[in-house]
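This protein record is not my work; I was only asked to verify it. The record follows directly below this note.
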Amino acid sequence: KNKEISRFIYVSTSHVYARSNSLLTESSPAGPNNVYAEQKLEAEEEITSVFRDYPEKLCIVRVFSVLDWDVADFTLGGGIKKLTSNDLSFMLNYGDDIRDFLTPHLIANTLISIANEARLTGIVNLATGIGITVKDAARTMLEGSGYKLPANRIISGNSDYPYVVGDNSKLMAVLPDLNLEW
């Protein structure tokens, strides 16, 4: 009946955006490139519909590329872990792709800050705003952990989405003290 509507944070993904060669803003066109992204965009649309009378209570957070050692094997982090193995047949593809990387820890802490900030509504990009090539990200992770970069096992070139970097100005305008560095 007269239940008070609570604030709702939905964690989505940057994969919902269409291919672009420039910073992705919250108003950049959608164009999911896989089933996962299609489902995330469908969920965004459904949740937006549910909150149509209370848009001030909804915040959709589009998270950009997650990268760290402790991630699933099928992710880029898992591929970088495989570079440390004795399996010399494993090659990491698309070394020239540029991504906006965040660690799971940074994402979790930022989501808590977003959840506690009622001024953030609508769609918000959770991104650093800084593009790093896959090869440079692999180098940073490997060398930072005492491994040598096996450059001959990182294949140059680009995927169908060679540039995925987010504009975080909406987020930073409300929470300027966030330290969003990968």
